[in-house]
Amino acid sequence: MEDEELQRIREKKRKELEERLHAPHEMQPSAKVLLVEEANFRSLLSQHPRFVVDFWAEWCGPCRMVGPVIDALCQEMAGKVIFGKCNTDHNPLIAAQFGISAIPTVLLFNGGQLADRIIGAYPKEAIKTRICRAYGLPP
User: Fold this and answer.
1) Helix axis angle, 124-135 relative to 61-76, nearest 10°?
2) Would you please indicate which residues are annotated as catalytic (active-site) residues?
3) Helix H or strand E segment including 10
4) What is the pTM of this model?
5) Is 76 part of a structural domain of the chain?
6) Average pLDDT, the chain
7) CA nearest 36: which of 49, 52, 14, 21?
């Protein structure tokens, strides 16, 4: 009888310790890729000094390869860089403003100014290297 009660207490304590161990990670909000549209673009540029925008379209095959890379980098670089996605079919004025004629195109803005342009589908590490270089971050 005593052994069973002791075992229950140990199990309860183990669960409490596990919950405390994992709680800080669960409490941190995950970074989210922002939706960039003509209505909010200027505001987002002024609010976020390091802003990376992925220009894409639903019909674009290579864009489907870059999309998950942007999502992953958003999580990995949370707190350092803000990421957004802009559908060029829904926001042609922004695309025209920056002369985007091929997608995917990723624009890197530093302090509201265009710092770099990545045209085409590249692997995650290549995109991350360009982002780090543009913002002076360690790779």
Assistant:
1) 50
2) 60, 63
3) helix 2-27
4) 0.78
5) yes
6) 90
7) 52
